[in-house]
Design a protein that fits this description.
The complex is a heterodimer of chains A (281) and B (666). Chain A is an alpha/beta fold and 281 residues long. Chain A has a single domain, classed as Rossmann fold (3-Layer(aba) Sandwich), CATH 3.40.50.300. In chain A, 38% of the residues lie in helices and 17% in strands. Chain A contains six helices and eight strands; from the N terminus they run ββαβαββαβαβαβα. In chain A, strand 7, helix 5 and strand 8 form a beta-alpha-beta unit. In chain A, helix 3 packs parallel to helix 4 and helix 4 packs across helix 5. Chain A is elongated and about 90 Å long. Chain B is of the alpha/beta class and 666 residues long. Chain B contains 26 helices and 13 strands. In chain B, helix 2 runs antiparallel to helix 3 and helix 22 runs parallel beside helix 23. The longest helix of chain B has 31 residues. Classes of the chains: A alpha/beta (281), B alpha/beta (666). Chain B: This is Signal recognition particle receptor subunit alpha homolog. Chain B: Pfam families: SRP-alpha_N, SRP54, SRP54_N. Chain B: Belongs to the GTP-binding SRP family.
Chain lengths: 281, 666
């Protein structure tokens, strides 16, 4: 048996296998460490409830109201903010926490300006984020004009599409994917011009259906068909019909409920209990 | 007079605000969405100010802690010290609460900033007042400078008789500070001071005209000055608190005392105005919360001990402490700035410099490096070259890169993230933000809506430079509408170029043949050559209304964007035809001219009308060099509605932002 060649490094005899192993270790360990570190930093908070909606609807106000229990003035947001809350923040103001779940959750506020809506969309699409619920806040007092309805429904359409995509991706790998609950929170119902939630619900469903119809009839996107990006020709809900209903969207991974409330007058108990059921699920 | 001062986080929380007059929150909201999000500076402002309603807004950013400091005041007023105030308040606020803000991740923190703000406001006002009384010559030199700074300040006619009266302007400014505008009383008193100043060229300023000028500037309750003056009497007794500044230090310099007199008058009237009671309350609040504040405030120990004994005594001592404290914080902040700079330029010791350099070098690879302007310079210039290669106009590229660079300063690189990749990501974000439309571009939906709600035809017109493809793109849109079973009228309003009408007639005939089976109806409305285009357009819209057309497409003559004679007829056209959408066709081939084209066409329709969208034609001829998209949208903030991607009627596409950004960054 041939003796393995040995080297002398700094006066110590070192055999070839040991040399190779140590060299490999030198190369590999930093890579593994780096991988571990980056993957650790990338995975988002454990359970996130996302706040989305058009601007001036009251997203940041709701966040601050839940955190501080008082009304705090806000301006248009340009960056998202994530706040860690304990479930006791959701229990009604006078009653004690029943301690059903004590795990803290995160509430993420996103900017509502049309140019910054990708923040919310990305939070949903990224599979590393465990998004346990979405609150779509809208201003129920301005929905009397068609332009605002279009804007409100347009953002909702994008969000629902993102949720649908996420659901499709997740259900490919995971057999039992629960649909994401989405609350359409009709804020500012203390105002005189506010519409009731049932009216808003039907308005939005009609508008979404129309949007789906015109999107189907509309022109192709630039770049469609060039690369196999199947995002482009994905339609919201059932491909067979243009009609969009909350019930119909359930099989596409989203469970929608609509509730009125007002941050300003403090009537957010319905939204709180909705969040509490999100956490328990 | 300052109307409102706010400290806002980028996540939208108002951390602290001081309001002297009710200002609608939409004023600041529009600053945020126009300037910060859409990055559209108002013409002439150079990103230094923003005007909304009757207000002027100035701001400063603290990017590392994510704060915005905004000052709001009446546009008519000429407040030269706002920049200084913003800067000072920023330093103070960041020094006091910076750590807390970083820890709170952009949500609410508790801050008792009122007294600091009041103190720095007072000290600034003292400075400005001192400049006028002690060295009027200086002040008169300063004023034209600041005039240049505030380029757009032209509406304050009453005050800006050339050359600017330093005494009037600046004393006016400090007056305004205390909200004494309604009453002529202070100006009567301070009148001798103005007369003293030797450089006052227009010295015969009667108190009455002064008061009137100030009244007009204030724009508030001009009818009731007399009543306010009366009310000034009794409340002046209660203002001993505010004027305690002089009482506390009788041993000060004589010119200080002289200014003290002038100060007291104004302070008194500040009370006389609406903010009086609040101000007093503020002082008491300041005293009561002072102890808890001490625990939170990062403050050098030496000063603390010096002032400890006097802290519990009356308010005048407290004021003194506060001034010292503020000075101290500002000094420290300045020192920190300076040491930062010297560190960058020349390291103190060789060894520490080497270690620092090595760490910095390592951080380039490992990440966790805090970026400065110098760090990003190289990467930014790389990205800029890349953009220029993609046919982005130089003007747009420079501005985009600037804003990206500013947004990056103070940020930390992620682990194993190079500066280049960070810059690239930020640039992708910026481009996506530019291209993302702020309104819905669903044309079919809008047509349907107009038809249902108003029962009139939807009018679209195309404009553009010669030969960019107006008629071709119009036909493409027409084909698309016909596919959706709409009834379309094409109006030939190019009454200038030979063959333009015939060309449209051919298109109309082809489209008719193509769409017969689909169920669409197309008709050409023509009146030959030489007639006024605006009138033809108007007639065409009326004709379409009576004949139940769904859509009118108006073709216009091509015109060079810098030919005033041709461009001026567009205003009349927009008024007569009143199109729902005016789309400008721009070639993807055009280079640096794109910015100017877009701007000129955008302003050609008069004050009320703007372009509604762009059609970028000939996109198939440029490959991935689609920079024109960015240039045009960036210059105007108007979205791209369609892209022309070929020669056929079917080669019309909507913009896909992801696709465009991908091409630009590839």
């Amino acid at each position: 048996m041939a003796t393995l060649p040995t080297f002398e490094i700094l006066g110590f005899p070192v055999s070839l296998p040991i040399l190779i192993i140590s060299l490999l270790a030198v190369v590999i360990i930093p890579i593994i460490l780096g991988k571990l570190l980056t993957s650790g930093s990338k995975s988002g908070p454990s359970s996130v409830i996302l706040l989305a909606g058009p601007r001036d609807a009251g997203k940041t106000s709701l966040l601050l109201y839940l955190q501080e229990k008082t009304l705090i003035p806000t301006q248009t947001s340009t960056t998202p903010a994530t706040v860690k809350l304990s479930p006791s923040a959701l229990s009604p103001a006078d009653s004690e926490d029943d301690g059903s779940s004590t795990k803290p959750f995160h509430l993420r506020d996103t900017p509502g300006h049309p140019k910054l809506r990708s923040t919310a969309i990305n939070t949903i699409i990224q599979p590393t984020e465990s998004c346990i619920g979405v609150i779509y806040i809208l201003d129920s007092a301005v929905l009397s004009t068609q332009a605002r309805i279009t804007d409100t429904a347009g953002y909702l359409y994008e969000l629902l599409l993102a949720i649908q995509k996420r659901y499709a991706v997740l259900s490919e790998t995971n057999t039992s994917t629960e649909p994401i609950p989405l609350l359409i929170a009709c804020n500012k119902n203390d105002l005189f011009t506010a519409l009731p939630s049932t009216k808003i619900s039907s308005l939005l469903q009609t508008e979404l259906s129309r949007m789906k119809e015109t999107k189907r009839k509309g022109l192709l996107n630039a770049g469609a068909g060039e690369n196999d990006d199947e995002d482009l020709d994905l339609v919201l809900g059932d491909e067979a019909s243009d009609q969009i209903t909350w019930e119909g969207l359930k099989e596409f991974g989203v469970e929608i409920s609509v509730q009125s409330g007002s941050v300003k007058s403090g009537t957010v108990d319905g939204w709180k209990s909705w969040m509490a059921t999100c956490l328990d699920a | 007079m300052l109307d409102l001062f706010e400290v806002i986080t980028t996540s939208g929380v108002v951390l602290w605000s001081k309001s002297y007059a009710p200002v609608k929150s939409s004023v600041i909201n529009s600053l945020i969405s126009d300037v910060f999000i859409e990055e559209r500076n108002q013409p002439g402002s150079d990103g230094k100010w923003f005007k909304k309603d009757s207000y002027t807004l100035k701001w400063t950013l603290a990017a590392d802690v994510g704060l915005v400091f905004v000052a709001v005041y009446q546009s008519l007023l000429h407040l030269t010290w706002i920049d200084e105030l913003l800067d000072q308040v920023k330093k103070l606020f960041v020094a006091l609460y910076g750590e807390k803000i970083k820890a709170s991740a952009g949500t609410k923190i508790q801050c008792h900033f009122d007294k600091y703000f009041e103190a720095s406001l007072r000290s600034l006002e003292r400075k400005v007042g001192g400049a006028t009384t002690a060295r009027p010559a200086d002040a008169s030199i300063e004023d034209p400078n600041s005039d240049g700074n505030w380029g757009g300040f032209s509406d304050g006619d009453e005050l800006s008789s050339p050359p600017p009266m330093p005494g009037v302007n600046t004393t006016g400014a400090s007056d305004l500070l205390h909200q004494t505008l309604e009453t002529p009383y202070p100006t009567e008193k301070s009148y001798p001071l103005i007369e003293v100043t030797p450089s006052t060229t227009s010295s015969p300023v009667s108190p009455a005209t002064m008061a009137q000028a100030l009244l007009q500037a204030s724009g508030r309750r001009p009818g009731r000055p007399r009543r306010n003056r009366k009310s000034a009497g009794p409340s002046s007794a209660s203002s001993a608190h505010a004027s305690s500044g002089e009482e506390r230090s009788p041993a000060r310099l004589s010119n200080r005392a002289k200014r003290g007199k002038e100060m007291r008058i104004w302070g008194e009237d500040g009370i006389a105005a609406d903010a009086g009671d609040d101000r007093k309350l503020d002082y008491s609040a300041g005293i009561s919360t002072d102890d808890e504040q001490d625990a939170l405030r990062p403050k050098p120990e030496a000063i603390d001990q010096n002032t400890w004994g006097t802290r519990t005594s009356k308010g005048d001592f407290l004021l003194k402490d506060l001034d010292y404290e503020i000075d101290d914080i500002l000094k420290q902040a300045n020192k920190a700035d300076n040491t930062d700079e010297t560190n960058k330029k020349g390291p103190g010791g060789l060894a520490s410099g080497l270690v620092g350099g090595a760490m910095g070098y390592l951080r380039n690879f490992v990440g966790g490096k805090t970026l400065s302007r110098e760090d990003t310079d190289k990467a930014i210039s790389g990205v800029m070259t890349h953009l220029l290669e993609k046919n982005v106009a130089r003007e747009a590229a420079v501005q985009i890169c600037d804003s990206v660079q500013t947004s990056l300063i103070g940020q930390k690189t992620g682990s194993f993230q190079s500066i280049e990749s960070l810059v690239k990501l930020a640039m992708e974000d910026a481009l996506r933000k530019i291209l993302t439309p702020t309104t819905s571009l669903d044309l079919l939906r809008e047509i349907e809506q107009v038809r249902e709600a108003e029962g009139r035809p939807y009018v679209i017109s195309v404009v553009g430079v010669n030969g960019v493809g107006k008629s071709t793109n119009l036909s493409k849109i027409c084909f698309f509408l016909l596919q959706n079973k709409l009834k379309v009228l094409i109006a030939a309003c190019d009454t200038f170029r030979s063959g333009a009408v015939e060309q449209l007639r051919v298109h109309a005939r082809n489209l008719k043949e193509l769409s017969e089976r689909e169920g669409g109806v197309v008709e050409l409305y023509e009146k030959g050559y030489g007639k006024d285009a605006a009138n033809i357009a108007k007639d065409a819209v009326a004709y379409a209304g009576t004949h139940a057309f769904d859509v009118v497409l108006i073709d216009t003559a091509g015109r060079r964007h810098n030919d005033q004679r041709l461009m001026s007829s567009l205003e009349k056209f927009a008024k007569f035809a009143n199109p729902d959408k005016i789309l400008m066709v721009g070639e993807a081939l055009v280079g640096s001219d794109s910015v100017q084209q877009a701007r000129n066409f955008n302003t050609a329709f008069g004050k009320e009308r703007k372009l509604d969208g762009f059609i970028i034609s000939k996109c198939d001829t440029v490959g991935d060099m689609v920079g024109t998209l960015i240039s045009m949208v960036f210059a105007t903030g108007i979205p791209v509605v369609f892209l022309g991607v070929g020669q056929n009627y079917t080669d019309l596409r909507t913009l896909n932002v992801k696709w465009a950004v991908g091409l630009l960054m590839s």
